[in-house]
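Q: I'm writing up a methods section and want to include an example of the input and output format. Could you take the sequence below and give the corresponding predicted structure tokens, formatted cleanly so I can copy it straight into the document?
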Amino acid sequence: MLAVEGLNVSYAGSAALNGVSLVVQAEELICVIGANGAGKTSLIRSIAGIVGPASGRIVWRGKDIVGMSPWEICELGIAQVPEGREVFANLSVEDNLVIGGSLKRARGRRDANLQRVYELFPRLDERRRQSAGTLSGGEQQMVAIGRAMMSEPEMIMFDEPSIGLSPALTTVMFDVVKRLHDDKITILLVEQNVASSLSIGNRGYVLENGSVVLEGSGQDLLSNEDVRRAYLGL
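A: Here is the clean output for your methods example:
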């Protein structure tokens, strides 16, 4: 479904990604793990069309999407749940969700998709008229996920969905990611919570200093001594 080939990204002359390559098959849950500054967010933002790579290809269903605008990439079926949630704070919960459903690919099924989001997150249904900026961090994360779902994506990219959440809410977020994957949505999950992400992932990639240094099944990476020592403290 998605192939990233030799991707290089720099900011002000400083390399963020160095020849990164990865593959995502349809209906897989792929984890990308690594420390802060490893290049995880740069990878997500490049696929989303927010950052233009210096070189390399990003191929979605056989089409190179480098140079396409973010909204065009969304119309192809790629949604993003960004780090920090980035909800529209002054708009209501429902208005935030409706914005996610404004793409041509999903516009005609807005009401059905809203109902689907409210079934997954009953708390949002209760707060549908409330300003998104007044919600808790966990509730704002629900809005961000619901907004992505409203576009009827084929793939959702999650950028650090557990950041800033309590352990209990972190568990809820990973359960939601797993449920979406069970519903046949392809997932690209970028996370610092290595144990939780690899435990639900089909495969994973380890980024260090902008380069892929390890790849394998989720279970293989969980049992890898280097991963256990560097990321799990074992």
